[in-house]
Design brief:
The structure holds two protein chains of two kinds. Chain A is an all-alpha fold. Chain A has four helices and no strands. In chain A, helix 1 packs parallel to helix 3. Chain B starts with a helix and ends with a strand. In chain B, the strands form two sheets. Chain B has a seven-stranded mixed sheet, with helices on both faces. Chain B is built from eight helices and ten strands. Classes of the chains: A mainly alpha, B alpha/beta.
């Protein structure tokens, strides 16, 4: 059986991971798709953990940790990092779309067509990441 | 015979995927001549090659022996059509073609089941309508995306099929004076196909003489990537049952979207009962 101390320790470790991911996010002008997905999964993971723990009336010490982490997510992620990610993804989608549209007007060589395919893949990836990120936003608006 | 033709095509595709080292996202192959494995009439084969060679989605082609079959490989790129369809939000499912050879086998089967008219719904570059016309069937293609309809019009001189730029759900089918039609629904059930098929089924059911005479072809998938339908039929079971249809034939054929998949696209031929 897991002790209350173990649970508290686990929550603290997962919260620490979040803080590290936020530090990475703040240190860069643009995050990779992998870093974005990792940050959202960790935020969702820790938020669910916090909700679950709150329902079983945790000890005061753990209550404080939960509250601190929730504040961190709200103030650092929801208010700053998440809007910045959406903004960057939107800008990147717009720029790639424009670039690909301008290159679509005439005949292209085989090499150029296959090079453009990589840009199209990048565009598709940015679009599906934006959809994923918007799901998080939908969750926030229903909270 | 058609069944074996389809199986041989699947084998050819598997061998092609094994040996193909190009970078095209949508390559496809057509045998260069009639053979025991592909007993396709020479004039038909020539027309299929003409369609492929003139089709602007293909940017390269070359001869290659695949297994024991001499073929021409056509390398395609459909990205700009995808970009156009998502920009205008006009499409329920983005364009991703079936193979030209698969379109031919499908229409061959439709003809053998006694249908006289093919209506290709969400027709993309019009290859199913084209193949139906090659087989001397009356043929109509309905596509909502104007860029794809322009592409069809560039190919329409090879054989004449009727090409319409329209929302298939709102199209007036009574204007075609159909007698024994079969409708090919573009798009997997899970990729907008259900909504498209439901809309077209509703329109056809309102034309009393077509209600019992129409055939339907649905493109299904067995891929675990997509949610299965509780009534099976590769994603179409519930729609088939809800619309009093019964499956009469199944055929498995290569498409662009199953290029690297172990299972081919499952085409379900259904009729009213």
């Amino acid at each position: 059986m897991t002790s209350a101390e173990d649970i508290s320790k686990m929550f603290e470790d997962e919260s620490k991971k979040i803080e590290n991911l936020f530090d990475v996010a703040d240190s860069k002008t643009e995050m990779s798709i992998h870093e974005i997905v990792e940050a959202y999964y960790q935020v969702m993971n820790v938020s669910s953990m916090a909700n679950m723990l709150k329902q079983v009336n945790p000890e005061l010490e753990l209550k404080k940790k939960i509250s601190k982490t929730e504040k961190l997510i709200s103030q650092r992620f929801d208010s700053i990092i998440h809007p910045r990610i959406i903004q960057n993804l939107s800008a990147s989608i717009q720029e790639l779309t424009k670039k690909l549209q301008s290159g679509n007007s005439g005949e292209k060589s085989k090499e150029q067509t296959e090079l453009d395919t990589m840009l199209f893949d990048e565009l598709r990836q940015s679009m599906s990441t934006k959809e994923f990120v918007e799901q998080y936003e939908n969750g926030l608006s229903h909270d | 015979m058609i069944d074996q033709f389809a199986k041989n095509l699947v084998e050819l595709k598997k061998e092609f995927v094994r040996v193909y080292d190009g970078k095209s996202q949508t390559p496809e192959v057509i045998p260069t001549s009639k053979s025991e494995l592909f007993p396709i009439e020479e004039p038909h084969l020539e027309l299929l090659h003409e369609f492929a060679a003139k089709n602007p989605i293909h940017y390269n082609s070359f001869e290659k022996k695949i297994g024991s079959v001499d073929c021409i490989v056509y390398e395609g790129d459909i990205n700009k059509y995808w970009l156009n369809s998502i920009q205008h939000g006009s499409s329920k499912a983005p364009f991703s073609p079936t193979w030209i050879m698969s379109s031919y086998v499908n229409t061959l089967l439709a003809k053998s089941l006694g249908y006289s008219e093919v209506i290709d719904i969400g027709s993309g570059d019009g290859r199913i309508a084209f193949c139906a016309r090659v087989l001397d069937m009356a043929s109509y293609s309905i596509e909502i995306d104007d860029m794809l309809v322009d592409l069809q019009n560039r190919l329409n001189g090879i054989v004449d099929f009727y090409s319409y730029c329209s929302d298939a759900v709102l199209f007036d089918y009574s204007s075609l004076n159909l007698t024994k039609p079969i409708f090919f629904i573009g798009g997997l059930a899970q990729m907008g196909g259900i909504s498209l098929a439901s809309g077209v089924l509703k329109s056809i059911r309102s034309i009393s003489h077509l209600k019992k005479k129409s055939g339907w072809v649905f493109a299904g998938t067995l891929s675990p990537k997509y949610a299965p339908d509780p009534k099976n039929e590769a994603g179409w079971g519930t729609l088939i049952e809800d619309n009093d249809l019964k499956p009469v034939q199944h055929i498995s054929l290569p498409t662009a979207w199953t290029l690297h998949e172990p299972d081919e696209t499952q085409y379900i031929f259904a009729e009213s009962y």
